[in-house]
Amino acid sequence: MNYYNYFTEVEEHFVRRRGKHLLVSPMDWNLIAVWRDAGIPLQVTIRGIDIAMDSFFARRDRSNYKLNTLCYCHDSVMEEYARYQESRVGESPGEETAQSESGESGRSEILNFISQRINEIKTLSAKQYFCENAGGFHRALTRLEEIKQNLETGSRIDSEALDRDLGIVDEILMEELRPAISAQQTAEWEKEAKSELKVYKKKLPKETYERIHRNFTHSRIRQHFQIGELSIFHL
User: How many independent structural domains does the chain possess?
Assistant: First the structure.
């Protein structure tokens, strides 16, 4: 399975099983990101969703519930992942690693994507409220230039490794940008997050909820400073 398709495959499968053609919410996409970042293979996630959906449709009282979020499937996905890990004890990970590598397809698109992020960061670092030589911007730019150079000279692209590297750079940028947000704006975002994430707080483990909350805040920071997320999924 192509790494780029993880999100869309999960979304489309959940929509099919739910039986209503309503796409998942942005917050559900953050939950999918949590599963992906945890290293849960697509086929395991799909099995977990199937188990949860089979359980839901077997309920006699299901008409009293609205199945409008992937939160309902989280426990089943994590339980299925635990079984998957147990079944693979002692096996070599070589085959999975090899499958994560992609060929030339999309190389120029990825390079253009990274170049755009580099230009956005340079624009931000030049604005008055940022020090031109701010440490976070410098580290992010340096690392992105290295990644770009490696892509230009490398023979193959490991999509998962590349996305992990970009994720690290994204965290550096968030740490640099967060202090520039006013207390009033932060409070408004927190109020918005509590409203939009209410259902997630009730249904998800604390650690998972905090990851989604963090992703929500980061998306608001990016929108505020007009900078794109550093993830090849968003190509």
Answer: 2
Could you read off the pLDDT of 204-223 as tens digits, one per residue?
888 888 989 998 999 999 99
pTM of the model: 0.69
Q: Which among 151, 170, 149 has a CA at the least distance from the CA of 159?
A: 151
Inter-CA distances, 121 with 98, 116, 177, Å: 33, 9, 11
> What are the φ and ψ backbone dihedral angles of 222, each rounded to 5 degrees?
-65, -45
Q: Which of 82, 99, 116 is the last residue of a domain?
A: 99
Domain encompassing residue 222: 105-234
Residue 154 DSSP symbol:
-
CB 125 within 8 A of CB 176: no
pLDDT tens digits, 106-163? 788 889 999 999 999 888 877 755 554 467 888 889 999 999 998 888 777 777 788 8
Q: Which of 58, 84, 99 is the last residue of a domain?
A: 99
Q: Residue 215: CB partners within 8 Å, gap ≥ 6? A: 30, 33
200 and 228 share one domain: yes
- Is the separation of the CB atoms in 56 and 75 below 8 Å? no
Would you say how long the chain is, in residues? 235
- For the record, the structure tokens of 34 come out as 């949590």
HEC sequence for 75-100: HHHHHHHHHHHHHCCCCCCHHHHHHC
